[in-house]
């Protein structure tokens, strides 16, 4: 909780695969060319364009991959083969193969500890941007959150109220279904989406009531199977049985999920707030979106919001243009870069920016943080990437009916204990 409170003070105010390259003419030499890769195009493209504008003659060659799993696999392969770009997006802390600690442990990231912005990071921000040796190897760019995100116009048309307790969630699903509209769009074909509802539920059922849960796991004092994770996954299935989701979620991808949501065929999604940027592409002009914490208990006062540093960038340890790469890092750490990236991604800035103003999506997150009703994303404390990967694939199998909840949790416990 200490980390989240610090982030709140710093913040003043997670598809189909596609690749594109933005080649701007005018670079006179190789030391004016920077290569960059990111998962998700919009925010990164905005940052690149602003950086090029501020640095005449610089060309940033970009590769964008819209699917997180494909991006992680591609970058890992490139890093291993020596063909990776100078700068690339990563994930904070640990939890997957493209997370800071995992890449840092493998010696794939440049030490940025000597940068002025790195010296100004709080100990909490350093904890998710440092390698196992304690060297800062990433710049934190945004704060992300998971909650119930709403299509305001679709909600108004439905005449329904946003649920604030778990019983209200089930009643909302029943009433929405009776009106012929999907309560919550769900696209489990994109594996990374599978984790979002469980993260929202366990914030209130596990990590909010017991902030030390992950450390207790590491100490051998508890397990996923022996905790309220079981109740969370059972509630996930209950939502499916009560008609809270569209038909056949495992056959629906992220793009289709966002199309359904943006067009108002679904009233909401339980998602990272940055997903709104994708929904806007499908929404009629004038559509607005808002967020509320997603409840898991019988009391609204017991609802927590999963909040965490969302996007971080690092520099390839074998970057072909390290000086220009560091200059781009300085831009991302600047108030201008922080506000620009946060606004473009539908997030809040990780390091603060006086020009950033919170909206109907971000303000509830900051309110939850200020009131002590926020938790970290679970995977940032997990000891290895295997836990998250087991979680993603097992949820898909759970929705297919090929495994049950105890099996999912046993697999996750085995992955958590794995040292290989």
Shape call: globular
Report the oligomer.
single chain
DSSP strand tally: 12
Task: Please state the structural category.
Answer: alpha/beta
Order of helical and strand elements: HEHEHEHHHEEHHEHHHHEHEEEHHEHEHH
Q: How widely separated are the two ends?
A: 30 Å
Tell me the Rg in angstroms: 21 Å
Q: What is the arithmetic mean of pLDDT? A: 90
| Low-pLDDT segments, ≥5 res | 1-28
> How many H/I helices?
18
Our estimate of the beta-strand percent is: 5-15%
Helix content: 40-55%
Largest sheet: 7 strands, mixed
Explained architecture:
The chain has 420 residues and is α/β, with parallel strands linked by helices. Helices cover 42% and strands 14% of the residues. It has 18 helices and 12 strands. The strands form 2 sheets. Strands 5, 6, 7, 8, 9, 11 and 12 form a 7-stranded mixed β-sheet that branches. Residues 1-28 have low confidence and may be disordered.
Briefly say what this structure is.
This protein is an alpha/beta fold.
Can you lay out the helices and strands and say which pair or pack?
Layout: H1 2-10, E1 33-39, H2 42-54, E2 59-65, H3 68-81, E3 87-90, H4 100-105, H5 116-119, H6 123-127, E4 139-140, E5 142-151, H7 152-158, H8 166-178, E6 182-184, H9 196-207, H10 213-218, H11 229-241, H12 254-262, E7 266-272, H13 276-280, E8 289-292, E9 305-309, E10 312-315, H14 322-333, H15 335-345, E11 348-349, H16 363-370, E12 374-375, H17 385-400, H18 405-417
Parallel strand pairs: 1-2, 1-3, 6-7, 9-12
Antiparallel strand pairs: 3-10, 4-10, 5-7, 5-8, 5-9, 5-11
Helix pairs in contact: 2-15, 9-11, 17-18
Keywords: Signal
Protein name: ABC transporter substrate-binding protein
Organism: Nonomuraea roseola
């Amino acid at each position: 909780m200490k980390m989240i409170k610090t982030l709140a003070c710093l913040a003043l105010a997670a598809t189909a695969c596609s690749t594109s390259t933005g080649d701007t003419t005018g670079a006179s030499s190789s030391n004016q060319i920077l290569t960059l890769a990111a998962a998700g195009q919009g925010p990164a493209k905005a940052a690149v364009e602003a950086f090029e504008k501020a640095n005449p003659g610089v060309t940033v060659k970009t590769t964008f991959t819209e699917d997180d799993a494909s991006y992680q696999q591609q970058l890992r392969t490139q890093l291993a083969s020596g063909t990776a770009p100078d700068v690339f997006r990563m994930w904070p802390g640990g939890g997957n193969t493209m997370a800071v600690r995992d890449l840092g442990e493998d010696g794939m990231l440049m030490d940025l500890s000597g940068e002025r912005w790195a010296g100004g990071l709080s100990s909490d921000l350093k904890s998710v941007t440092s390698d196992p040796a304690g060297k800062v190897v990433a710049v934190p760019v945004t704060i992300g959150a998971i909650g119930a995100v709403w299509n305001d116009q679709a909600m108004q048309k439905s005449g329904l109220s946003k649920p604030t307790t778990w019983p209200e969630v089930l009643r909302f699903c029943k009433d929405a279904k009776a009106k012929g509209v999907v309560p919550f769009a769900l696209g489990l074909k994109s594996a990374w989406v599978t984790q979002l509802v469980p993260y929202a539920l366990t914030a209130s059922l596990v990590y909010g009531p017991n902030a030390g849960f992950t450390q207790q796991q590491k100490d051998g004092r508890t397990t996923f199977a022996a905790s309220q994770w079981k109740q969370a996954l059972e509630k996930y299935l209950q939502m499916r049985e009560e008609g809270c989701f569209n038909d056949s979620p495992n056959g629906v991808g992220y793009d289709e999920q966002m199309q359904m949501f943006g067009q108002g065929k679904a009233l909401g999604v339980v998602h990272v707030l940055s997903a709104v940027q994708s929904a806007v592409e499908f929404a009629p002009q004038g559509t607005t979106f808002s967020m509320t914490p997603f409840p898991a208990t019988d009391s609204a006062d017991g609802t927590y919001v999963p909040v965490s540093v969302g996007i971080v960038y690092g520099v390839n340890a074998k970057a072909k243009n390290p000086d220009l790469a560091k200059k781009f890092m300085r831009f991302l750490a600047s108030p201008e870069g922080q506000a620009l990236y946060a606004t473009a991604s539908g997030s809040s800035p990780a390091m603060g920016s006086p020009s950033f103003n919170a909206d109907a999506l971000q303000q509830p997150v900051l309110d939850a943080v200020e009131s002590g009703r926020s938790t970290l994303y679970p995977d940032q404390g997990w000891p290895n990437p295997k836990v998250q990967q087991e979680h993603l694939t097992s949820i898909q199998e759970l929705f297919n009916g090929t495994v049950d909840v105890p099996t999912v949790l046993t697999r996750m416990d085995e992955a958590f204990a794995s040292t290989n």
